[in-house]
């Protein structure tokens, strides 16, 4: 009975948590287009989400493209298909690795910061003070972060795709001795607009996911400094898992 009780309690907690996150997501969407538009705060959050995440995203994408080219070349060499390395790198970066790795990196860097900042505001009763000032905390705190993540994730993914493909090109041409003209031709011949579109669509969804989950964890923080640390950890873990799960769902729908 204890086992069934644990399963039941865990299921109820999961369903309740998921329901509260969905409610917060719907409430955030309802406040997005209501005036006033907080342009200064949105730009500040865009800098935090996009500009300050740029180095880690670029480094991750570059070495991912490089190791992908290296492994693909080694595997394809057994079948005499070394000329397809550029195609594999381009399709892998634009469809999957670019948006997913960018989402995970930004989730770890920005999602934790969102949860920690809002969690600190919760335990110090700053969020409660907003209610006394007749200010909706969702509009004031969550909407700018939500919009910034939704806007900047696709931009970061574009840079990640370009840098990843360039990293694969450098390894293939300079180290493995692939013909550069053939590499570029193979890349452009098989790369379609739908591949880029699917990756950018995933990036928008990942931005909404990580912003919503991170802000929810911050808003629901309890227990002082220990609760803030717990909320930060849960924000990163839950955002990363949700991004990976939603990536499969979106891929299954699009392809």
Radius of gyration: 21 Å
Number of helices: 9
Alpha carbon gap, first and last residue = 44 Å
State the order of secondary-structure elements, H for helix, E for strand: HHHHHHHHH
Stretches with pLDDT under 50, minimum 5 residues: none
The number of distinct structural domains comes to 1
Percent strand = under 5%
Structural class: mainly alpha
Proportion of residues in helical segments = over 70%
Shape: elongated
Average pLDDT, all residues: 88
Work out the number of β strands: 0
Largest sheet: none
What does it look like?
By secondary structure, the protein is an all-alpha fold. It has one domain (39-254). Helices cover 87% and strands 0% of the residues. The chain contains 9 helices and no strands. The longest helix has 39 residues, at 85-123.
Key traits:
single chain; 255 residues; elongated
Q: What's this model, at a glance?
A:
This protein is an all-alpha fold. The protein contains nine helices and no strands. It has one domain.
Question: Topology of this protein?
Answer:
Layout: H1 2-32, H2 39-51, H3 54-76, H4 85-123, H5 126-132, H6 137-175, H7 180-190, H8 193-219, H9 224-254
Helix pairs in contact: 1-6, 1-8, 2-6, 3-4, 3-6, 4-6, 4-7, 4-8, 4-9, 6-8, 8-9
